[in-house]
Amino acid sequence: MAFTSPLGNTTIPKDINSDPYMEPCHSENNTWQAGEILTYKVYYNWNFVWIAAGEVVFKVEEENGQYHLSADGRTFKSYEWFFKVRDYYDTYIDKNTLLPDVSIREVHEGKYNLYDKVSFDHQSKKATSLRGKTKEKAVSTVYDVGECMHDVLSVLYYTRNIDFGTFETGADFPVKIFMDKEIWPLNVKYLGREAGKKIRNRGRFNTFAFNPEVILGDIFTEKNKMKVWVSDDKNRLPLMIESPVSVGSVKIVLKEYSGLKYDLTSHLD
User: Which helix (H) or strand (E) holds 186?
Assistant: First the structure.
């Protein structure tokens, strides 16, 4: 069985072992636009109690002929006695391919700090990482990354341009991202349509549901337990994410949105 590759018109088999990262490395953006702002509230569950832990704000801007994608994540002050987070992500992507040119991460989580600026050269299939605890202490290293490589932020906007309505339930598609000095080939399983999904404080939506793999480590310890609901309309807007973490579980829920390219027709009430 085959379905349409997220990389364009190439048809690839359902088998995850097939490699969809072949030419053309090109994806058109027909889903989102500059000016879109999405705000998500993050809830943490510990001992059956849901705690409002923080917020993440995603923005799309247009700068110098590129899309500038950004994410600003931070814990609420009321939660910082437990764990303080200040994370900043900036990715500049090519308008014609939606592939990243430059990716910048500034991570401040508890006592952990990281600065990582990655410059992608897709023609030579290399990435140069300027990485350290701070920008001033960062060291440059060059990595071989292969074709059509994404970062953790560009892949989110890239996948929103996939026409999920053409997938059969149970189909899966692979994505590749470069992060933390490694290439991560991850698989996303399409779980089908879910009508009337209740989204906290936003009402009911017609949705697509997915089960993406995660990068295992200190935070995620269960490979296939994350679930994502996306609006079943032209925006393919992420509405809610649920996942277990190393201690407890998290829920990320759409709080506010503006600047959408299309009406949110999946919203039922």
Answer: strand 182-199
Please give the sequence-ordered ranges of beta strands (E in DSSP) within 200-248, or none if there are none. Answer: 203-212, 227-231, 238-244
In a domain, 113, yes or no: yes
pLDDT tens readout for residues 51-105: 899 999 999 999 999 999 999 999 999 888 888 999 999 999 999 999 999 999 9
Compute the distance between CA of residue 103 and CA of residue 93 in angstroms, rounded to an integer. Answer: 9
Q: Which is nearest to 13 in space by CA: 171, 190, 150?
A: 171
Q: Is the pLDDT of residue 246 over 90?
A: no
Residues 7-32 pLDDT 10s: 332 223 333 333 333 334 778 899 99
Decide if 13 is inside a domain. no
- Whether 211 is covered by a domain: the verdict is yes
Integer Cα distance of 124 and 17 in angstroms:
24
Percentage with pLDDT > 70 across the chain: 84
Q: Span 193-212, mean pLDDT?
A: 95
Domain assignment present for 23: no
CA distance 230 to 92: 24
Helix (H) or strand (E) run with residue 154 in it: helix 154-159
Enter the tokens of residue 49. 């109690």
DSSP class of residue 82 equals T
DSSP state of 220: B
> Could you give the CA distance from residue 24 to residue 7 in angstroms, rounded to a whole number?
7
**Pick from 21, 29, 8: which is nearest to 148 by CA?**
21
Chain mean position to CA 150: 10
The number of folded domains in the chain is 1
- For residue 179, the enclosing domain spans 31-258
Residue 67: in which H helix or E strand, if any? strand 66-75
